[in-house]
Amino acid sequence: MKARVTVTLKNGVLDPQGKAIEGALKSFGIEGVDSVRQGKVFDIELSTQDRAQAETLLKAACEKLLANTVVENYRVEIV
Amino acid sequence: MKAVVVLFPGSNREGDAVRALEMATGKKPQIIWHAETELPAGTDLVLLPGGFSYGDYLRCGAIAGRAAIMDAVRAHAARGGLVLGICNGFQILCEGGLLPGVLMRNRDLRFICKMQNLRVERADTAFTRAYSKGQVIKVAIAHGEGNYEADEETIKRLEGDGRVAFRYCDESGLVNDATNPNGSTNGIAGIYSQKMNVLGMMPHPENLIDPLVGGIDGAGLFKSLIAA
Lengths: 79, 228
Description:
The complex is a heterodimer of chains A (79) and B (228). With 79 residues, chain A is an alpha+beta fold.
């Protein structure tokens, strides 16, 4: 079973990297970009075929390591 | 004072930390590897040195903060034992749950390496008793992720409980946006745990202990510790 975990900064947390990317896009003449927030994607292969078990272990992985929940949100998708 | 320096893969300031502790205590501190599960018997102080543990992968200090030795460090802190995290060590303490908040990328996205004035916010802790309250000390900073952030409630609690250890300032002790190198909330350069026995700080006092390198303002922190 494969999963994708997406970690993004919470709303209101200053994201200087996103701001820099946003500025770069604008300076390249790419029109219509209002704002950019940067995040991380983890593609994870799991040995289990059990969806519920996969969700439980991915939640634990996010809470324990993949996201710092002080400033980040995470989203788990089983694909 | 029995001091222990924890070494993670990618730590690189342990030599400076050992030197500063040796100068203050007259004894060479023991260096222990992060995969240990226990601290040496009779440990008084655990120092987490600066560097780039695990190459700063994932987030600075994230992997080291969950290393095997950190359970023992947490237990040591819970017993009231002293813990000092410098630079990457501060990031590890935040990621490891010993201190609140997080160190984000510097406001201007640059790695900053320079001399910096700090204001000592209180001089009644195990780490600062050799200084005076409000004293301005000049030490080095060298970090890319030193921008201290926490939710509003946490900042309020830290400020209300007097848990800010040092703030970035100018030579007269003035703290404002212009004296803030990295965008840290309220110019925070270091914070204490609730029981004041854990200190995390971004600047490097261990590099300013010898007149040869241009100053000894960092020595007071290590002198404070031996009096503890």
